[in-house]
Every structure is written in structure tokens, then in C-alpha cells.
From TrEMBL, chain A:
It is an enzyme of class 2 (transferase). Residues 46-168 form the Phosphoribosyltransferase domain. Its EC number is 2.4.2.7. One of its GO terms (biological process) is adenine salvage. CDD domains: PRTases_typeI. The keyword Transferase applies. The keyword Disulfide bond does not apply. It is found in: Cytoplasm. One of its GO terms (molecular function) is adenine phosphoribosyltransferase activity. This is adenine phosphoribosyltransferase. It comes from Arabidopsis suecica (Swedish thale-cress). Signal peptide: none annotated. Belongs to the purine/pyrimidine phosphoribosyltransferase family.
TrEMBL record, chain B:
InterPro entries: Ade_phspho_trans, Adenine_PRTase, PRTase_dom. Keywords: Cytoplasm, Glycosyltransferase, Purine salvage, Transferase. GO terms for biological process: adenine salvage; purine ribonucleoside salvage. This is adenine phosphoribosyltransferase. Residues 39-166 form the Phosphoribosyltransferase domain. GO terms for cellular component: cytosol. Pathway: Purine metabolism; AMP biosynthesis via salvage pathway; AMP from adenine: step 1/1. It comes from Arabidopsis suecica. CDD domains: PRTases_typeI. PANTHER family: ADENINE PHOSPHORIBOSYLTRANSFERASE, PHOSPHORIBOSYLTRANSFERASE DOMAIN-CONTAINING PROTEIN. NCBIfam families: apt (TIGR01090), PRK02304.1-3 (NF002634), PRK02304.1-5 (NF002636). Belongs to the purine/pyrimidine phosphoribosyltransferase family.
Length: 192, 182
């Protein structure tokens, strides 16, 4: 579900967010139109809009845990967690987390990877939000949902700044709703 | 109270939340695990508040966070003080035009990259990471910012390992830390 389908139609913040995202053609390989959110982070007003919109949505949903996917989920997840008073849990590449971890393999839009989570971080009956910058195939988010459910948490929703149009409407990932702010920005050849 | 630790009642609460894991990622390393701090919303908020209170009136225009744990602390600080957030990343993650700096870690060596257009002269920068050990990573971060003409105002970390003398490698730039581990 996109923000425009859920009460934010015409909200000027969404255009500001979309305009701030830069498109890099053929990165990391030919054919991929890379949605570069680093330009959004250089615009403090637009970056704050992103966090505000997510916080407004989640602050009354009794979320106890925000799980951010390494590494760009570490940029958006913590400010949301702080604002809604939830724990922040990093979902990390292999070998980075100390202590007892569980892991889940998944396929990316471009490659394969494995995600790890600290088992001690999650109590059963937690209500979790998963955050990443972008959803393409849904592979990373699906792996994240699996990790949290295996540890006994309930995943309430997955949230991303950018998502492919196929995630409109009631599209779910592993049965969980998805909330997306904007569609991918288009590459403007005139700016070359 | 150690020499460079901040004197504030919130510090004890922060210090007790950091978990020390022996022999990770390899034998002999006493790993400072900040993920347990992130599980305590009050202690995490106190951590960010302490940095924000220090920097919000210092005209910082850029917060540069070192991948990946520097993102967790740097991003909320940037938002709270109205500064740009610039991720300093491992190789090949940033698209577009980048510059890079090689450096040695406490355990290994690596390379840090930054977008050239993200920062310029006239920017006043704060560098953020979760921890300073030998200072190699922070030095590389400072060098990247200086190469594009920015002024590095200060480096800020949650934890310092003073015995590794990283503070002395920062070419006189101030270092602000909340907790020391000896």
C-alpha cells in the first residue's frame, strides 16, 4: 500500500521526498535504475518528512520493536524507533552480530545474501515494524519477517521509503502488509 | 569517573547497557556491543540527547556517519540538529562519483568512500561512529571531508578505548565520547 492510497493523496511532502531521490542508471550493474536515497539525506527537510510520516502512522500502533535492515535501514529505523519509544534491532550481514544469532538466506534483486538477528533481542509477543529504504523483489523483507517470527515476534507491517508499483493496493509480503511512501523516481536524461 | 568521560547522570544508565563480548570477532578482542543499548529506548534516547545538546548550537551543517553503526547514531543526531547526513561507506556501495581513503582497523584493513558532491568547503562537519579504538577509521573519515574542503569541527563516539590512543591520531581535532572502556 502506498501513502497516497492511505490518506496522504496530495500531501506535498511526498513530492518533496520523491524529488530528493536521485536515480543512477546501470548501478550496481547494467539495467538497474538505482534509487539513491543519499540525496534525500542531504535535504534535512525532506529527510524529516520521511521520519514524520512513518512516526505519525506507527506511534499509536503499539510497536515495541523496529527492525532495520543493514545498512540503509540503519538510517531510517533508529529515528523512528526513538520517536515512538520502541527498541531498535539491527538485522545484519553475516558475522557482524556477537552473541547468539539466527540467520535466514534470501535472494536480492541483484544477487544472494544472508541476514542475521540476535535471538536475545526479541521477546515473544513483541509487535514489530521492519524498515528498509526500498522494496524491489521483497526478498530482504521476507527474510526479515521470517527472522522475527522465528523469534516469536508479531510483524505488524513492513515500511519502505521507495517501492515498485506492484506493491500498490493490498499487496502483502508473507501475509504482512507493506507501507511505501513513493514509487521509484524516473531518470531524467535532460540532467546529464 | 574517567578523565574524558562526560559528567552527566544519564551516563551510568548508558554504560550499563553496553555489553562486552569476549573474543569477538576473534580471540583477544573484548567487543563493545552497542546493540543492547539500542534495546533500551530510554538509554538510546539519552545517548542521542547528550550529543544533540552538545552540537545543536555549533552550526554543524553535516553529520558524517561511518558505516554501519555510525549510521545508527549519526542519523538521529543529524535530524535533531537540522544537518545533512552523509554516509561514509564500505567500497562499492555508493553510486555516482566518489572519493576513497584507505585505512587500518584494530583488526584488519579497509577502505572508506564518500560522495564528492555531498560536502564542500563551507560545510562544518561532525564525524560520528559508535566507538573509537586506534582512530584509523575516524582519521580516514576526517581525511575524506578535508579533501573536499569541509572543516571537521569534532569527532563524536559513544565509546572510547583509551589504551589504544586513538585520540592522539586525530590531528588535534576534539573528540567527544560518553563512555570509556579500560
Amino acid at each position: 500500500m502506498f501513502a497516497v492510497e492511505n490518506g496522504l493523496q496530495g500531501d506535498p511532502r511526498l513530492k518533496a521526498i520523491s524529488d530528493a531521490i536521485r536515480v543512477i542508471p546501470h548501478f550496481p550493474k547494467t539495467g538497474i535504475m538505482f534509487q539513491d536515497i543519499t540525496t534525500l539525506l542531504l535535504d534535512p527537510v525532506a529527510f524529516k518528512h520521511v521520519v514524520d510520516i512513518f512516526v505519525d502512522r506507527y506511534k499509536h500502533m503499539n510497536i515495541s520493536l523496529v527492525a532495520g535492515v543493514e545498512a540503509r535501514g540503519f538510517i531510517f529505523g533508529p529515528p523512528i524507533a526513538l520517536a515512538i519509544g520502541a527498541k531498535f534491532i539491527p538485522l545484519r550481514k553475516p558475522g557482524k552480530l556477537p552473541g547468539k544469532v539466527i540467520s535466514e538466506e534470501y535472494e536480492l534483486e541483484y544477487g544472494r545474501d544472508r541476514l542475521e538477528m540476535s535471538v536475545e533481542a526479541v521477546k515473544s509477543d513483541e509487535r514489530a515494524l521492519v524498515i528498509d529504504d526500498l522494496v524491489a523483489t521483497g526478498g530482504t523483507l521476507s527474510a526479515s519477517i521470517s527472522l522475527l517470527e522465528r523469534a516469536g515476534a508479531e510483524v505488524v507491517e513492513c515500511a519502505c521509503v521507495v517501492g515498485l508499483p506492484k506493491f500498490k493496493g493490498q499487496c502483502k509480503l508473507k501475509g504482512k502488509p507493506l507501507y511505501v511512501l513513493v514509487e521509484p523516481s524516473q531518470f531524467d536524461e535532460l540532467t546529464l | 569517573m574517567s578523565q574524558n568521560e562526560v559528567n552527566d547522570p544519564r551516563i551510568d544508565g548508558i554504560k550499563t547497557k553496553i555489553r562486552v563480548v569476549p573474543d569477538f570477532p576473534k580471540k583477544g578482542i573484548m567487543f563493545q556491543d552497542i546493540t543492547t543499548l539500542l534495546l533500551d529506548p530510554k538509554a538510546f534516547k539519552d545517548t542521542i540527547d547528550l550529543f544533540v545538546e552538545k552540537y545543536r548550537d555549533m552550526n554543524i551543517s553535516v553529520v558524517a556517519g561511518i558505516e554501519a553503526r555510525g549510521f545508527i547514531f549519526g542519523s538521529p543526531i543529524a535530524l535533531a540538529i537540522g544537518a545533512k547526513f552523509v554516509p561514509l561507506r564500505k567500497p562499492k556501495k555508493l553510486p555516482g562519483q566518489i572519493i576513497f581513503e584507505e585505512y587500518e582497523l584494530e583488526y584488519g584493513s579497509d577502505r572508506l568512500e564518500m560522495h564528492v558532491e555531498a560536502v564542500d568547503s563551507g560545510d562544518r562537519a561532525l564525524v560520528v561512529d559508535d566507538l573509537i579504538a586506534t582512530g584509523g577509521t575516524l582519521c580516514a573519515a576526517m581525511d575524506l571531508l578535508k579533501r573536499v574542503g569541509a572543516e571537521v569541527v569534532e569527532c563524536a563516539c559513544v565509546i572510547e578505548l583509551p589504551e589504544l590512543k586513538g585520540r592522539e591520531r586525530l590531528e588535534g581535532k576534539p573528540l567527544y565520547v560518553l563512555v570509556e572502556y579500560r
